[in-house]
Amino acid sequence: MKIAILGGGQVGQALWTTIHSEKETILNILGEPLEIKRVLVRDLNKKRKIPKEYLTTDPNDILLDPEISLIVEVMGGEEPAHSYIKKALEEKKFVVTANKEVIALYGDELYKIARKKGVDIAFEASVGGGIPLIKTIKEAMAVDKVKEIWAIVNGTTNYILTKMEEEYKGFSEVLREAQILGYAEPDPSKDILGLDTRYKLAILSSFAYHTTIKPPDIYTEGIDKISLRDILYARELGYKIKLLAISKEENGEIEVRVHPTMIPLSSPLSSVNGVYNAILLRAEKRGDVLLYGEGAGPAPTAMALLSDILEVGHTILYSIPRYYTFAYLYPPKLKEWESIYTRYYLRLWVKDQPGVLAQIAKILGENHISISSVIQKETSEKEEKAEIVILTHKTYEKCIKKAIEEIKRLPILEEWGSLIRIEV
Ligand code: NAP
Ligand code: HSE
Q: What is the whole-number distance in angstroms between the Cα of residue 13 and the centre of ligand 1?
C-alpha cells in the first residue's frame, strides 16, 4: 500500500523512522508492505532523516497521484493543511492527521466530505500525543454518556509549569527546552496562550456530547500570566497549578473552559508532570476513566499516527469499515461563561496600612463572595506595600469579575497580581 506524508518536520521524520523500523510488524498486520512514496516539505535543502529523492514541494505530486490511497498530514496550522486535507478527501483518499487545529475548526465539514466520498479521516494523534484517547472517547464511550472531562492535554505547558516549580527555571528557558525536545507547536504561542488546549477540548467535547463545539465557544486563558510567585504560593497552600481543559454537560447545557487551575495535591491530575498528559472522563455508567501518557513528542505521536494508519489501511485493503463519528449530531446549548461557579485565588499588592484588608473584604462581601483564607507576608517598612493572597469559597464568575473591577479602583491597590480558578 502506498501512502504519502504532508510535512517532514519533527513528527513527519519520526513517522518516517517508525514506519521503516516497524516494517515487519506492519507487514504482519496489513498483509502487505507499507510504502511511503512522497513527503511534502517547504525546503528541499533542510537536513532531515528522509532521503532527498522522496521529498517534494508540490502538493499535487501527492494529492493527484492515483497510486496514493492514504495521506498523512503532519504539516500543522490551519492553511494550507485544511485545503490539502479537503482536496485529498475529494480525491477519495483516506486521511490520517495530527492536526487538532484543522479538526477542531473543520471536523464537521471534513466528516461530511469523507462520508460522501466513501473514505474516512482519522486523528488519534491530534489529542493526547501517544495516549489512545480518541478511540476511547469515540468508540468505548459511544454507548455511555460522558458527563465531564477534566484534562491536561498540552505537553509543552505542563512541562513548563513543572520545570518552573521543580527547578525554579525561567519561562523562556523552559520553553526553549520544550522546543528542542520537539513538544512545542511550530508557533509556540499556540501552546502558551492555551489555543492548542482549546482545539483539543473542542474535539473531545464534540465527541463526548455528540455535538459541534467550535474553538470560539470555549473560554480560554493560557499560562502566559502565571508567575513563579503564584506557583510557590500554590505549593504553600497545598495545590499545583495546571492548565486544565474542563467540560461538563448538565441538564443539556454544556460548560467548556480552558484556564490555569489550582488543584489540590489529592487530585490525580496534580501528579501529572512534565510532558505527560492525563484525561479524566466521568461517564454515567462506566464511572471515572483516567487515561495517562506522554502527551507530546515526535515518537509517541508517530505511534498514534501509525495505529490510525494501520486501522485505515485495513479498511482500504479489506473493506472493513471504521466506526463513523458520534460527533456533530446535535447543536450545542452552551452555558454562559459568567454563570460558572467555582473557587478563586486572588493575589494583589496593596499599601501596607491599617484598614486595607477590611476594604477588600467589604467589596468581596458585598458581591456575595465568602473568603476561605488569607495570607499576608510580613514586609520591611521600607517596602511600604504588602502582598495579599486570598482564597474564596465557591462563587459565580460574574460576582468575582465585578468585585475585581471594584478592587482595582481602590486607592490602596498598588499592583494587581493574579486570579486563578481553584477546582477539586
Ligand atoms: P514541524 O516540525 O514544524 O514540521 C512541519 C513540517 O511541515 C515541516 O517539514 C514543514 O516543511 C512542513 N510544512 C509546513 N508548512 C508547509 C507548506 N505550506 N508546504 C509544505 N510543507 C509545509 O511541526 P511538528 O512538530 O512536526 O508538528 C506537525 C503537526 O503535528 C502539527 O499539527 C502539530 O500540532 C502536530 N503534533 C505535534 C506533536 C509534537 O509533539 N510535536 C504532537 C502531536 C501532534 P519544512 O521542514 O521544509 O519547513
Ligand atoms: N504542542 C503540543 C503539546 C503537541 O505540547 O501538547 C502535542 O499535541
A: 10
Residue 58 one-letter amino acid:
D
**Does one domain contain both 127 and 194?**
no
Q: In angstroms, what is the span from residue 157 Cα to ligand 1's centroid?
A: 19
Tell me the percentage of the chain whose pLDDT exceeds 90.
92
113 lies in some domain: yes
Q: Which ligand is nearest to the CA of 47?
A: 1
CATH of the domain at 166: 3.30.360.10
Global confidence as pTM: 0.96
| Mutation to probe ligand 1, out of 5, 10, 126, 181 (largest number of atoms < 8 A from CB) | 10
The CB of 218 under 6 Å from ligand 2? The reply is no
C-beta pairs of 116-120 under 8 Å, 24+ apart in sequence: 117/89, 117/90, 117/92, 118/92, 119/89, 119/92, 119/93, 119/94, 119/95, 120/94, 120/95, 120/312, 120/315, 120/322, 120/324
In this structure, the answer to whether residues 151 and 269 fall within a common structural domain is: yes
Number of folded domains that form the chain? 3
What is the extent of the structural domain holding 11?
2-132+298-318
Residues 2, 14: Cα–Cα separation, whole Å? 18
Q: Identify the CATH number of the domain in which residue 69 sits.
A: 3.40.50.720
Q: From the CA of 155, how far away is ligand 2's center (Å)?
A: 5
Catalytic residues: 200
Q: Is 43 in the pocket of ligand 1 (CB under 6 A)?
A: yes
What's the pLDDT band for 323 if we cut at 50, 70, 90?
Answer: low
Q: Is 183 in the pocket of ligand 2 (CB under 6 A)?
A: yes
Q: What's the pLDDT score for residue 3?
A: 98
Is residue 324 assigned to a domain?
no
Same domain, 265 and 173: yes
Q: 328 in a domain, yes or no?
A: no
53 falls in which pLDDT band (50, 70, 90)?
very high
Checking if the pLDDT of 324 tops 70, the result is no
